[in-house]
TrEMBL record:
It comes from the Bacteria. The keyword Thylakoid does not apply. Pfam families: Sigma70_r2, Sigma70_r4_2. InterPro entries: RNA_pol_sigma-70-like, RNA_pol_sigma-70_dom, RNA_pol_sigma70_ECF_RHOBA, RNA_pol_sigma70_r2, RNA_pol_sigma70_r4_t2, RNA_pol_sigma_r2, RNA_pol_sigma_r3/r4-like, WH-like_DNA-bd_sf. One of its GO terms (biological process) is DNA-templated transcription initiation. Residues 16-78 form the RNA polymerase sigma-70 region domain. GO terms for molecular function: DNA binding; sigma factor activity. This is RNA polymerase factor sigma-70. Keywords: Sigma factor, Transcription, Transcription regulation. Residues 109-159 form the RNA polymerase sigma factor 70 region 4 type domain. The keyword Transcription applies. Belongs to the sigma-70 factor family. ECF subfamily.
Length: 174
């Protein structure tokens, strides 16, 4: 591995949580988020020779992520919610200026969500990916709307507890 690749990898590792949080906020589809983030990482490494070390790396990487999100939206013209360039610019700025602890919590949420399985995972997908209301989820899963609402509340409580545990563990390790 040459020095430039080593430096790009090191800087990307530090910027990745912020860029990942930006992509998660901009792209609703779970699977597409991973693809857009991977494409962003590749673009960062491939264009690293054009990076100006006088500029903040995170802001530069967010610019590349904005371009990758735009490309994704162009490929997904059927997407219900598509951000325009100005909205993406403001969103990237917000992530560039958000305190690291808050960005870490978003990363913890991704980790915690990956541990949700079975019916609970399906409920989360229906509610937060497909934007279905509890009544529609209940009909789909053969439950009552009240049962779905209570289950989603328990899932949110478990996710909150998981995030808090991860944050405490990281705080104790640092």
């Amino acid at each position: 591995m040459d020095d430039a690749t080593r430096q790009a990898t090191r800087l990307w590792t530090l910027a990745q949580p912020v860029v990942s949080a930006f992509v998660v906020a901009a792209v609703r589809d779970f699977a597409a988020r991973d693809d857009v983030l991977q494409e962003t990482a590749v673009a960062v490494v491939e264009s690293f020779d054009r990076y100006d070390p006088a500029r903040p790396f995170v802001a530069w990487a967010l610019g590349i992520a904005q371009n990758q999100v735009r490309l994704y939206f162009r490929r997904q013209q059927r997407e219900r919610l598509v951000f325009d360039d100005e909205a993406l610019k403001h969103l990237a700025h917000a992530f560039d200026t958000t305190p690291q602890a808050e960005l870490n919590a978003l990363g913890f949420l991704q980790d915690c969500l990956s541990q949700v399985e079975g019916r609970a995972r399906r409920m989360c997908e229906l509610r937060y990916t497909h934007d279905l209301k509890p009544a529609a989820i209940a009909e789909s899963l053969g439950m009552t709307a009240n049962g779905v609402s209570k289950a989603l509340q328990r899932i949110r409580d478990q996710l909150r507890q998981c995030i808090q545990q991860k944050a405490a563990a990281e705080g104790g390790a640092g």
